[in-house]
Design goal:
184 residues, Arc Repressor Mutant, subunit A, HTH-type_TetR-like_transc_reg, HTH_TetR, DNA-binding, transcription cis-regulatory region binding
Length: 184
C-alpha cells in the first residue's frame, strides 16, 4: 500500500471525503485480512496516512470504524433501486463480495460481541431495513427475504468453498429466491 503524505492544516471538503474513503478502504482490508482483535486504530491510522486522533474524532473507536466499513460495503443502501428485484441483486452482490465475506469471517472469528453487534446493525439489519422499504415496511418479511437471499450461496462463500458469484449467478439466485417466496 502506498504511503500517504500528510499536509499541515485543515483538509478541504474534497480531501475529507477522500480521506474518509481511504480510511474505510484500509480498515475493511485490515479487518478482512487480520480479524477484529488484531487490527488496532494505530495500524489503521498508519496505513491510511492519518493521525490516530482523526479516527477517534471521526468514528469514536474501533467498533464504530467497523460499523462504517460495513456500511460502506453496503453502499447500495444510499441509492434506492427501482424495484425489489434490483434491490435484492444489489444486496447479494454486496454480501457475496470478497471484501464483505472477509469482514464477515473476521467478525465471526473474533467471537467479540461488540464487533458482532456493530456488524449486525450496520450490515444485516441495515439490509433488512432497506428491503422493508420495498415490502411496505414489513421488517419480518424483509428478514425472511434477506435470509433466503443469503442462503446456500453465502454459506459456501463464508466457508471458502465458492468464488464470488458472477452477475449472471446473482441474477439467477435472486430470481430463484423471489420465485420460491412468490415475490416475483
Amino acid at each position: 500500500m502506498p504511503v500517504v503524505e500528510r499536509k499541515r492544516g485543515r483538509p478541504t471538503a474534497a480531501e475529507k471525503v477522500e480521506r474518509d474513503q481511504r480510511i474505510l478502504q484500509v480498515a475493511t482490508d485490515l479487518f478482512a485480512e487480520l480479524d477484529f482483535h488484531r487490527v488496532s486504530l494505530d495500524l489503521i491510522a498508519a496505513r491510511a496516512g492519518v493521525a490516530k486522533r482523526t479516527l477517534y474524532d471521526q468514528y469514536g473507536g474501533k467498533p464504530a470504524v467497523l460499523s462504517a466499513a460495513v456500511r460502506q460495503l453496503h453502499s447500495y443502501a444510499q441509492h434506492p433501486a427501482p424495484h425489489l428485484r434490483d434491490a435484492c441483486v444489489a444486496i447479494v452482490s454486496a454480501v457475496c463480495s470478497d471484501r464483505a465475506v472477509g469482514v464477515h469471517r473476521a467478525v465471526i472469528a473474533s467471537a467479540d460481541t461488540v464487533a458482532a453487534r456493530a456488524f449486525l446493525e450496520s450490515g444485516p439489519r441495515a439490509a433488512q431495513q432497506y428491503l422493508a422499504g420495498y415490502l411496505g415496511g414489513d421488517l419480518a418479511r424483509a428478514g425472511h427475504l434477506f435470509a433466503a437471499l443469503l442462503g446456500e450461496l453465502h454459506r459456501l462463500r463464508l466457508l471458502g468453498l465458492a468464488p464470488a458469484p458472477t452477475r449472471a449467478m446473482v441474477d439467477r439466485h435472486v430470481s430463484d429466491v423471489l420465485a420460491v417466496l412468490s415475490m416475483s
